[in-house]
Amino acid sequence: MHGIGRREEIRVPGMPEPISHFTNRTIGGTDATAQARQVHENLKRCLAAAGATFADVCKVTVFLKNIADREKVNIARKEYFGSHRPASTLVEISRLVRDDLLVEIEAVAVLPE
After folding, report:
1. What is the pLDDT of residues 79-102, one digit of tens each?
2. What is the pTM of this model?
3. pLDDT tens across 53-73, in order?
4. 107 in helix, strand or coil?
């Protein structure tokens, strides 16, 4: 059996919604790609605060109100993750915390030793 050294795990549950704290409006409106870009920006800030990057992410769970938006969300995902492909689960759900939200992302990252 092989082992690895102890590493710090970072969990970002239910990535902060693409909502402006100034206007309380959804950033990106009804555009799934624009909303996904903002969610990834929020995720980027959370990861950076913990000393991590997208390259440290090992698992994501993407929640979509409409499974047909998968390719639109993947446009943003590729912009932020580049060639890195963490394990991924995609789930279509009937509703997010607000009616105008289209995408939510949970992420798990592991900091390098």
Report:
1. 999 999 999 999 999 999 888 999
2. 0.87
3. 999 999 999 999 999 999 999
4. strand
Q: H/E element holding 27?
A: none
Residue-wise over 67-96: b if at least 16 C-beta within 10 A, else e?
eebeebbbebbeebbeeeebeeeeeeeeeb
Helix, strand or coil, per DSSP, at residue 7: coil
Domain coordinates of the chain in residue numbers?
9-110
Residues 44, 110 contacting (CB under 8 angstroms):
no
Give the CATH number of domain 9-110: 3.30.1330.40
Sheet holding 103-110, edge to edge: 9-12, 103-110, 57-64, 87-92
